[in-house]
Amino acid sequence: MLVGHEKTIAFLSKIAASYSIPHVILFTGRGVGMDEKKMVAYEFARWLFHAESEASQNFSQFYESECGCSSCRQVSRHIHPDLFVFEHFPMQIQEVRKLKNAFAFTPLVASRKIAIIDNAQTVRNEAANALLKLLEEPKGDALFLLVASSRSDVLATISSRAVEIRFLPRKMTIAERYGNEAILTATRAIKMFEAKTLDQRFGEARNYTVQNKDELIRILDIWLLNLRESLLTNASKHTRELLSKILNAKQCIATTNTNPQLVMEEFLLNN
Questions:
Q1: Residue-wise pLDDT tens digits, 88-136
Q2: Which of 139, 185, 205, 240 sits in a 20 to 30 Å window from 152, CA-based?
Q3: Whole-angstrom distance, CA of residue 260 vs CA of residue 102
Q4: Residue 114, helix vs strand vs coil
Q5: Number of continuous H segments (helices) and E segments (strands) in the chain
Q6: How far apart are CA 175 and CA 179, in angstroms?
């Protein structure tokens, strides 16, 4: 499963289960990589072709499976005769005409033809007019999967024909945000700030000055994230108070010229 987009996958699965798949779907979402949206489009096409020839689980269960059937292999290799992919942009009028000619004939091996159009927000002028006509008058059981940054970036005449599937930005993990090395450094510092003796705590506080306060802010930020995660399982009064005190210390260090060592010493005395 593409982490962070489980709800989107489940929604697509629900649409497919209702047997009322719209003939134009627009995948959008700012803060989400185009490759992620395009991957879902590919997987949806792969599942639709697969489900015709074999008993299949729903899309959520099938997503990113290692199926080795003939249809899935063809989609993975971009050689399925009823799948048409346009990844270069801006899309040219010649490409739209080629797609129109291909969709004028019945599918070769499946019951439908599917087109994946990447960067749909770049379709303009003659190409847009030709594509619009194709979307308005699709031949047979045709499906168009458009991928774009946002609905507002796509020409209104095109986006109005589509059902939008919006991807939400995925919440980054602590490791992705800061990197493993920074987390290891922060973990060691946090252990010292949580040490039993005040001398050990103050010893760690002496490592930070105005010159390296950014490092301390990063450590406090990681500490805050860890505590927020622990609140899900341990919403104790102590945890809530500690989180509030760390947040106040971080804001003071980040927004004032106060000596970071003094801020931390005051925090450690009251904790």
A1: 778 889 899 988 888 888 889 888 899 999 999 989 889 999 999 889 8
A2: 139
A3: 67
A4: strand
A5: 13, 5
A6: 5
Question: Is residue 50 a contact partner of residue 71, using CB atoms and an 8 Å limit?
Answer: yes
pTM: 0.63
Which neighbouring-strand residues pair with 26? 146, 164
Instruction: Please work out, in degrees rounded to the nearest 5, the angle formed at the alpha carbon of residue 41 by the alpha carbons of 36 and 44.
Output: 125
Domain edges within the chain: 6-166, 174-269
Mutual angle of helices 260-269 and 237-255, in 10-degree steps: 160
User: Which amino acid is residue 60, in one-letter code?
Assistant: S
Scan for tokens 């995660």, then name that residue: 229
- DSSP state at residue 150: -
In the block, which residue shows the tokens 């920074």?
182
3-class secondary-structure state, position 79: coil
What is the predicted pLDDT for the residue at 67? 79
| Signed CA dihedral, 47, 48, 53, 57: sign only | positive
CATH superfamily of 6-166: P-loop containing nucleotide triphosphate hydrolases (3.40.50.300)
Which residues neighbour 83 within 8 Å (Cβ) at sequence distance 6 or greater?
Answer: 45, 49, 74, 75, 113, 114, 115, 116
Supply 239's token pair.
Answer: 């945890």
C-beta pairs of 66-74 under 8 Å, 24+ apart in sequence: 71/46, 71/109, 71/110, 72/46, 74/49
Residues found in the chain = 271
